[in-house]
Amino acid sequence: MFTAQRLHDLNQPLQAEHQLQFQYLADLLSRRNQDAQEVVRELVKFQVAIPSWALGTGGTRFGRYPLGGEPRNLEEKLGDVGLLHQLNGSSNSISLHIPWDIPQDIAGLEQLQQEYGLVIDSVNSNTFQDQKDQAFSYKFGSLSHTEPAVRQQAIQHNIDCINYGRQLGARTLTVWLADGSNFPGQQHLRRAYLRTQESLAAIYEAMPSDWQMLIEYKPYEPHFYSMVIPDWGTSYSLCQSLGKNANVLVDLGHHLPNTNIEQIVGRLQQFGRLGGFHFNGSMYGDDDLTTGSIKPFQLFLIFNELVDAARDTSVTNPLVAYMIDASHNTKDPLEDLLQSVENILGAYAKALLVDREALHEAQETNDVARAEELLRDAFLLDVRPLVAEAYRQSGGALKPVQAYRAAGVREQLIQQRGKRSVSTGL
Amino acid sequence: MFTAQRLHDLNQPLQAEHQLQFQYLADLLSRRNQDAQEVVRELVKFQVAIPSWALGTGGTRFGRYPLGGEPRNLEEKLGDVGLLHQLNGSSNSISLHIPWDIPQDIAGLEQLQQEYGLVIDSVNSNTFQDQKDQAFSYKFGSLSHTEPAVRQQAIQHNIDCINYGRQLGARTLTVWLADGSNFPGQQHLRRAYLRTQESLAAIYEAMPSDWQMLIEYKPYEPHFYSMVIPDWGTSYSLCQSLGKNANVLVDLGHHLPNTNIEQIVGRLQQFGRLGGFHFNGSMYGDDDLTTGSIKPFQLFLIFNELVDAARDTSVTNPLVAYMIDASHNTKDPLEDLLQSVENILGAYAKALLVDREALHEAQETNDVARAEELLRDAFLLDVRPLVAEAYRQSGGALKPVQAYRAAGVREQLIQQRGKRSVSTGL
Amino acid sequence: MFTAQRLHDLNQPLQAEHQLQFQYLADLLSRRNQDAQEVVRELVKFQVAIPSWALGTGGTRFGRYPLGGEPRNLEEKLGDVGLLHQLNGSSNSISLHIPWDIPQDIAGLEQLQQEYGLVIDSVNSNTFQDQKDQAFSYKFGSLSHTEPAVRQQAIQHNIDCINYGRQLGARTLTVWLADGSNFPGQQHLRRAYLRTQESLAAIYEAMPSDWQMLIEYKPYEPHFYSMVIPDWGTSYSLCQSLGKNANVLVDLGHHLPNTNIEQIVGRLQQFGRLGGFHFNGSMYGDDDLTTGSIKPFQLFLIFNELVDAARDTSVTNPLVAYMIDASHNTKDPLEDLLQSVENILGAYAKALLVDREALHEAQETNDVARAEELLRDAFLLDVRPLVAEAYRQSGGALKPVQAYRAAGVREQLIQQRGKRSVSTGL
Amino acid sequence: MFTAQRLHDLNQPLQAEHQLQFQYLADLLSRRNQDAQEVVRELVKFQVAIPSWALGTGGTRFGRYPLGGEPRNLEEKLGDVGLLHQLNGSSNSISLHIPWDIPQDIAGLEQLQQEYGLVIDSVNSNTFQDQKDQAFSYKFGSLSHTEPAVRQQAIQHNIDCINYGRQLGARTLTVWLADGSNFPGQQHLRRAYLRTQESLAAIYEAMPSDWQMLIEYKPYEPHFYSMVIPDWGTSYSLCQSLGKNANVLVDLGHHLPNTNIEQIVGRLQQFGRLGGFHFNGSMYGDDDLTTGSIKPFQLFLIFNELVDAARDTSVTNPLVAYMIDASHNTKDPLEDLLQSVENILGAYAKALLVDREALHEAQETNDVARAEELLRDAFLLDVRPLVAEAYRQSGGALKPVQAYRAAGVREQLIQQRGKRSVSTGL
After folding, report:
1. Looking at residue A116, what is its pLDDT?
2. ipTM above 0.85, yes or no
3. C424, part of any domain
4. How many domains would you assign to chain D?
5. Average pLDDT over residues D26-47
6. Per the database record, which ranges form the Xylose isomerase-like TIM barrel domain (chains A, B, C, D) (predicted)?
7. What is the CATH number of the domain that holds D398?
8. Sorting pLDDT into bands at 50, 70 and 90, what band is D425?
9. What residues have CB less than 8 Å from C314, skipping those under 6 apart?
10. D140 and D204 Cβ atoms separated by less than 8 Å
11. What confidence score (pLDDT) does residue A133 get?
12. Nearest Cβ partner of D61 from C59, C219, C282?
């Protein structure tokens, strides 16, 4: 949608100020023996997947307020992600949700992927909703259901997801199991776990050996007494029983109040079981807000763990899948996603600028105030010039949201797709 | 739906055992100088309103699993509540939700009310969803919206609610204001409050002097950074500014983790500002589960405050409106409501059996263990025979859920209304 | 302190009423095909350990209000527990805390144990406080400390605990590791875990093969950013790495808000890793209140899991150690402990009365309302006559707190030990 | 302790880099039409009171780890605060705690105040601990106690506090009422409130008309079932009943999980009832960590409310008292306080740099993403050069913690006061 010339034109008036700010920061970092360009190179490489289901307006059970121009099919979803990737150079992949994104025209999709420079990142199964013409209902569970036939249907759905994903080059299956119970007594807690374990093993068995399965956890919602996989400990135990290609997925909104998420991230890396992230922002629960909008310091601390582990050769964690999982009720979804990616890149940049050697020394000598200051020092830096420079070097916009608005993208999408187009999904 | 004969027949096989249990408990209480029949009389008088929107299957943003036979219009909703009232004699009123329950045939409805022995309890306005053909959207708020025209529309909707209610004999307007913001900065917190205050004043002004306005509070959802009325303090301050006919409504699910709700109930009664309840069960947030299903002791402690205040002549609180507000995803809605009412009656019965004189003395002398034991003593009593006796004396079923099932009510409703009938509402 | 005659005399005036209530309940249960005497037999067998540190007044950082008569040494602590055991027949063991309870006169202690019918249940190490003349401070950690010498000191302390315990016949070492950090950056999260793992392995190595190590977890306090062992997942992973004699200890107050603890209990039993409990009551955090005083339904649901697993031959969990861990600021500690044991026995009795066959069927057929009702049915029973009968059959008091008061125990203890005696401990 | 020359020498090697950074930021702000010097002027004026009780090592109920050199009397406490004020020019006042800080030598203290440029900010009463030789115990409450004599003692203590404060020029009484209950039933919730109200009225009556009373709230600890003043609504209602010189004090750690504190701040300002702050950092509850160490964005959002209200002429809130209330277990208390003040100044500087006109416009037009970006834009700025410049202009150190360490202050204090000196207080 954006030609290189168009982006160049949009960047032109901002270029001088950007150059000034970037140069100042590069000099400042250089005086600290840090290399701005090296950080920029890392940012340019960093990619975070966009969820197909976040391209349309989300909402709560109380209502939705669509704004129009939403993608009506998988092809248009690729188009939207391609557009984001043009703007920020950091969104080269897309997470699919089956059955919302069942591919029809594989060849056409492959061509679109090439055109936009996109890959398919992960396939997400959905056994938390009943689909039309489905033989059995998931009202009382899917992979954990008491009836073998329902479990088999849910297993098969996951295998179908793998097959769709293989056609498009994906190599990750993400399982968020919404099974649980609303009342004490409703579900036999141990048996529900065992049935789930058995079902996951059947899916794992059917998974190609170069795939990985990511297992999410969530303490509540859609069930409000118990969830079969409520915490990282349960996900971890399931992964242990499945094999080395099963790993834990951390969704930032899936924790009880006050959880220290960065510590969970550290633990999982140490166990070699951190499979991936669903980034979003949370104040109360699974709020699915813009990543970094509510707890920017937490986001930085998470990236601090990631960078620290990445530099520690004793850590043998697999490649981590970075994905956004958000829902937008009041913002333009595409603006929200651009903001999320920007906040993620900022947190990553800051984590890269932590003086780890000095921090290590302060930690080893229990110099509490100094250790804290060393972390804060990186957090307090204004790294926006580094992020903007990464955009620029990727051929994107210095200020993606501003460019998106200036180019009137939403208006064009509404014209093309209509005011009432509603993206498939929740 | 149930004739007196039918209920008598259903009770018949349970009668002997009931009589045995009731007599035992009456004797036991009598030895404690407590009068079982007096408690039963209180229970018979106690009525809790059924929300029209809880007669159909609810759900979360992730999916719903309707079970069929749901009421398709206001007349059928009255029918369902009438049926519940036949079974338990404690559900003689219904809360309406506008626009889901706009009455069409007033005379017909009045006749139905008489037939079922029902009254309309409260009218609930809805400015958290956009209705078709609505001039302005509530995407960015209603009574707190920045635009006067949107506020005016929302004010007018509330006035319409009052007018609908007047036609049906209601005298309470319940305002749950879902306005809020998802991101820091989105909303000017003070101005949003002031606009809300002004809007509520306009509605209050239009309200007949024998009506009361109930103002709910809720800390989050549908908005996840701030809600305009997040806590009892805000509701209370608004009521103070409006006048004596505005009071606070406490929804058991609308609190932050670990809140001592019974203390809030006590405070509001003391201030003469407790207007009513939305009863439901909650483990995490606004889970809308069966009342008493998760925290039965808390429910008892709330009733303990209510009974205590009712017997304290220095407390000048207005009549409290008892209403259920729940949502049912996995249970039959009518069974859920019968259970909720039963749990409420049980908590009330236990609260009536607290030895308040002894408790008072233990409190005044700081005999902690004894004060606690006195409360627990009432809580630990098995008061089910009292509740069953109240059902019986009201002409209902000794075991309402059992009778409901034995009579095959749901199957009949499905036959009448269809497998796919979906109740209006969320 | 109580002779059999004295207890008999105290029971005498209550006996007739007790007999009446017990007989009624036994008849009622019999009509349900349940055997009251069988439940009583289980209750008589059930023993819960009393923590030596809960025999004196506890408190918060803000102050303490000792009431006098507190045990001044280990011998007097045994005396207090012996007295509790006389009263309720359910407290035949004591948990020690080293260094607060270092035994001096082993032979004398053994004799006291025999006299009171007590065993030593578990030895608890303490590396969260600095003891006078200790070579290294635990200010910055113990088993996780950055300095090998500090870790070695903490390891040795745990080994000392084992040795003290062996002298007294204990076979359990309980490790609550208070290590953690107050600020982001203070502690390297992965390295702290690895050092802890290594230290625990050294202790485990030194532990006799017929001992078990219980590893507690706690999300916060005394550290407020991170704890090295914050959750069951971390405890579990450590146990896995240590061996089959290391198991997880669940303290009811050591969870984040809204945690479903009974599910954790179920998981751990399923993994064969539930080692024991620290029972107490909690509204906000580690409040250390009387067990069952705040969330009696939760306590029942926990026992429901325990009973369910005990009857499931596929579960191969080791024997679970039942211990109280509480702190008393406003109640007489001994009254508090009597109440705690009573609440525990009540929850256990109710769990024994769940109709598991019917529940199983309801669960398998997803009859949600019925499954819930089956659990609630047991919870709502007034089982106090069963608990009292168990007391009676054990030779204790029908109403232990009442007997304790009637006998003027506290007054005598104050006379013997003084108004200002302060128990060792926190 | 620091001469101007000493501070100059310590600043000297940092001066060039500071100048470079400050000039760059001033230029950048100038291009945004913002005036760095104006912000610096505001920062120079800003003063936050240091609590006398935070000058020594704090701790939890589990243990303390004093580091030595703690002030042994009020004079030495003034000395410590004087030293902080020399270093940062922002700590010109001290909060006293009675009875820990009962002044003996008024004239001497006045001279010290003059010497150090300090004022006494607020006097804090303490009725949560029993003092030696106190007639009645506060075990079961103070201002809310059931016994009039105990209440009278607590009232008198507060009046004594006022009198001590008058001698030293204070004009604020801070009341943190720790009264509450640990068990349901222990306290009659309504009567406890009424007794408290009456007691506070007696104190208010005795307070000079140019004083203000600040009423804190706290949801739990030291009591774990109910606190008499648990939330802002209760504080507010008490202030309303007392008069215009009673206002609410917000302690950042005194809230339930997930509370939106900045909204409470906004509400109270709007009601003209925000009296002051106790700043500290919190992850779980009343953790009393370094201000801004855990949730820096929240601290900024609070200052955003403060600055916004300060510029709004329709807001008629009294002067807000800014105080720190923290406890230090692992850090040097003085370093912790320097960090806290620095974080507060940083948050204030950022709040001053919000483009309020643009924000207002974005809010009024519901441009959500832009409104959010405008706030974040200020938050992401690295304002440390502004804070350092404020220190410099106040005659302090460019980097106070660094200067404190370079000067070997703690070592000197230990030499003067001893390794085992323990500050009065908790």
Report:
1. 95
2. yes
3. no
4. 1
5. 98
6. 103-288
7. 3.20.20.150
8. low
9. none
10. no
11. 87
12. C59
